[in-house]
Amino acid sequence: MPFYIADQRVGYVRPVVLDVLLGVSGFKSVRDGVAINSDCETFKDRTEALGEAAKELVAAGLSKMAGDELYGVKNSWEQCPLAAVNRGAAAALGIRSYGVHVNGWRREASGKLSIWTGIRAAEKSVAPGKLDNMIAGGQPIGLTLMQNLIKEAAEEANVSETLARRAKPVSCISYVMEDGDGLRPDVMFCYDLELPQEFIPKNIDGEMSEFVLLPAEEAIRKVNETDEYKFNVNLVVTDFAVRHGLLNPDCTPDYTMIVQGLRGQV
Fold first, then answer.
1. Is residue 244 part of a domain?
2. Which domain holds residue 228?
3. How far is residue 214's CA from residue 201's CA, in Å, rounded to a whole number?
4. CA-CA distance, 10 to 54, in Å (whole number)?
5. How many domains does the chain have?
6. pLDDT tens-digit profile of 76-122?
7. 31 falls in which pLDDT band (50, 70, 90)?
8. Assigned domain for 266 exists
């Protein structure tokens, strides 16, 4: 059911989440869903109401807290955020989240491409043990995309700021999926970072157990034939393959569907 702020639909919630929200000060039943009260007129007021809601969702076992990292609540990247909410509650509220994903790649002497691929730590609450991009992270409020990329690059792969700034913005992927946490109508800003031969990523923050250097063709095979990749990273690898000509319309029967599907409406 729709979740509204200032008469704008900003998310979708399950009935069990709606019941929790209606028990929190600052929320009311409206039309076919739930809304933040109209007397919560400012960014600060709405953020405080969402902070209380996040705590109640955690108490009800419907969400989790993700430290103190806040996401902006908005319907498009260009829009000013209407409020901020703890990252852990984003899916339960069905709000649109944004993130940066970096393909760390290099060209071998043979001319073929390889991709540095992270293996997520077994302790991760989301997709433990799955394959991941070398660098990836949700987009917190208050940072530019490049600032976030530099931060995540240092934490996740020990990449210097000088090298991280070489990352090129190349694509934007959108998707919608429902999982145990709720609804994810997400947008991923994709970057390509060509790496020197001598570079070996090293995880700093413990989110990756190790990195492996996969031939790009092997990465594509894993996407096509297995579920080894995290649920959204397979899209980033597919996009990389399209842009570098590793998938092409002569050899890929569903090429147009793949390309169009990477830019779905969310």
1. yes
2. 98-261
3. 13
4. 16
5. 2
6. 999 999 999 999 999 999 999 999 999 999 999 999 999 999 999 99
7. confident
8. no
